[in-house]
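Fill-in record for Cysteine proteinase.
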Amino acid sequence: MAFTLPTDASVVIKRATASGFSTELNNVPVTARDMATLGAGKWLNDEVINFYMQLIITRSEKTPTLPRVHAFNTFFYSTLCDKGYARVRRWTRRIKLFDQDLLIVPVHLGVHWCCAVVDFRCKSIVYYDALLGDNPKCLRLLMNYLHEESKDKQGNDFNEDGWSMKCEKEIPRQHNGYDCGVFAIMFAEYLSRDAPLSFSQDNLPFLRRKATYEIATGSLVSLI
C-alpha cells in the first residue's frame, strides 16, 4: 500500500493547525484547537473523532459502490451504557438503521478509544481495541440495543439467530499510550470500505497527517 498524500498536503495541514482555523460538516464543528490533538503524541478529542465519523458517512452516501454506513458520535456509547436505550431512542429518528450495511460505534473507556462495528450483512458485532482488550459488556450492550431499536422502530423483536459477537485480535497493534484514537478512526475508515486493516503502528505519524488533511479538506483520501 502506498502511504502518500496529495502534493498540497503540507500547505493544507499548516493552515489547518494555525490559529483561527475552523470547519464544519453536518453540524459538527472542528477548530484549530481540536486539530492540535492530531499532533504527535496527543490524544484525539471527541470533536475530531465525531468529525471523522461524518467524513465516513458522507463518503458512503456519495459512493454507491461502498457499504451503506451509519456512525454514531462519541457520546452514544456512554449514554447507552449509563442511561439506557430510552436516552438514545431518538438518535435514529432520521435514519433507517436496519437498512444500513454497517453501524460504527466509537467507544471511549475513560482514557482509551476503541471501535465497535455492527455488520448487518454478515450478522456480526466486532470490537476493535488496538491494545487487544476484551469488552464482552460492549458486545452485549450493542446486541441489546438492536433488540430495543427493532422493537421501537420496526414493531418486532430482533432475531439474533446466526449472529456472532467477537473481540477481534488479528488487528494492528498499538505500542504506546496515546495513539488509541487514531487507531479507532482508522479501524472505522478501513472497515467502512471493506478494506483489510493493512496499517501498523509505524504508519501512525502518516495517518495523523492524513486525518488532519482529510478534516481540513472535508474529504477522505483513498489509499492505493
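KEY FINDING: Strands lie at 22-25, 28-31, 69-71, 102-108, 113-119, 124-128, 164-168.
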